[in-house]
Write a structure and sequence with these properties.
With 174 residues, the protein is an alpha/beta fold. The protein is built from 3 helices and 9 strands; from the N terminus they run E-E-E-H-E-E-H-H-E-E-E-E. It has a 5-stranded mixed beta sheet. It has a two-stranded antiparallel ribbon with strand order 2-3. Strand 8 and strand 9 form a beta hairpin.
Length: 174
């Protein structure tokens, strides 16, 4: 067994604060991400990080799978939107920049609620162009049609209207 290089990305965007069947989406995704980090085992190298509008922090390989699990445990959902494509591209560049023996498996695992806004920037079934061909992309398969919303624009109400805030929203799923 030549081990594996694994990057585990956990969605820390605003939509992960929602609950499904009484459980926060973030908790379910974090549990799955921690299990994936453990899967790498003693022969593997694991880098774990949060992703919202790209990577939340630079990636680095942890000292052990247990250290990567602990790093995932310290993450929490924030208030940003989601750009998983930017996070996956950064993870692919991270793996491409690290020397890896030819027989070693390389993988990027993404754990997200998979809302429509999270998938923007991905072609259906396509890897980012900066992802080496030997890097496998895998992810949590959420229930279809999870509800989500995005603020498209916000600002002061137009002149001639009562003072206030004007916002344009987009609703997805559900």
């Amino acid at each position: 067994d030549s081990g594996m290089d694994l990057v585990v990305l956990l969605d820390t965007s605003w939509s992960m604060r929602a609950s499904e069947a009484g459980r926060p989406r973030f908790e379910a995704a974090r549990d799955a991400a921690r299990a994936a980090a453990a899967f790498a085992g003693d022969a593997g190298r694991v880098a774990a990080g949060g992703v919202s509008e790209g990577l939340d922090a630079p990636l680095a390989f942890s000292e052990s799978a247990a250290a990567a699990q602990a790093a995932l445990g310290r993450l929490s959902p924030g208030w940003r939107g989601t750009d998983l494509a930017a996070g996956v591209s950064a993870a692919c560049r991270f793996l491409a920049s690290r020397p890896t023996p030819a027989a070693r498996r390389r993988e990027v695992a993404v754990f997200s609620d998979g809302t429509a806004t999270a998938a923007q920037g991905f072609g259906r079934g396509a890897a980012p162009p900066d992802c080496p061909p030997d890097v496998a992309l895998v992810g949590l398969a959420p229930a279809a049609g999870l509800p989500n919303a995005a603020v498209l624009s916000a600002g002061p109400a137009h002149e001639g209207q009562a003072p206030g805030l004007e916002a344009r929203l987009a609703l997805y799923g559900g």
